[in-house]
Amino acid sequence: SVNRSLRHIYAQVIAPEGGKVLAYANSLEQAIRDASNGEETKSDLAKQVGKLLAQRAKEAGVEAVACDRSG
Known about the structure:
Elements: E1 2-4, E2 9-14, E3 21-26, H1 30-35, H2 42-59
């Protein structure tokens, strides 16, 4: 699941059965804020969120994900 506002991006990996979040990341997190210098574009922040989400998903044992655009 990916959501965005005018300033931030939020992403999470949800279990196939639904109801359980396996990993999450967003642009408000301290790790991303510390790594940024304030001049990044929203696309740059989205890439950082994606990398952090991938790292956390791997740590949670997720090997593959699928994007379900139908909701």
